[in-house]
Amino acid sequence: QSTNHIQKEGQVYAQIPGMVSRIFVKQGDEIKAQQKLLILEAMKMENEIDSPFEGRVKAIHVSPGSAVEKGDIIMEIDS
Fold it and tell me: What is the 3-state secondary structure (H, E, C) of the chain?
């Protein structure tokens, strides 16, 4: 199941509290819309977080093992 949420141009936010288990992109990567960015584990379920648009990964604010709260910025993408 995919969760996409944009509150501000280029910023990807956590929809749910959880822990980052895997990150599939790195800073500087060119990505496409709907490309898998990371896995967020919440309540023993793995949630794929996909990119809402294409662009270049500007910044990644989490790493594997990071705990996030709902609304935390996890990644910035330049479109």
Answer: CEECCCCCCCEEECCCCEEEEEECCCCCCEECCCCEEEEEEECCEEEEEECCCCEEEEEECCCCCCEECCCCEEEEEEC
Q: Kindly report the pTM of this predicted structure.
A: 0.84
| Cβ-based neighbour number of residue 1 at 10 Å | 6
Express each pLDDT in 3-20 by its tens digit.
454 446 789 999 899 999
What is the enclosing helix (H) or strand (E) of 47? strand 45-50
- Find the helix or strand (DSSP H, E) in which 41 lies: strand 36-42
Alpha-carbon gap, residue 70 to 34, rounded angstroms: 20
The number of residues making up the chain comes to 79
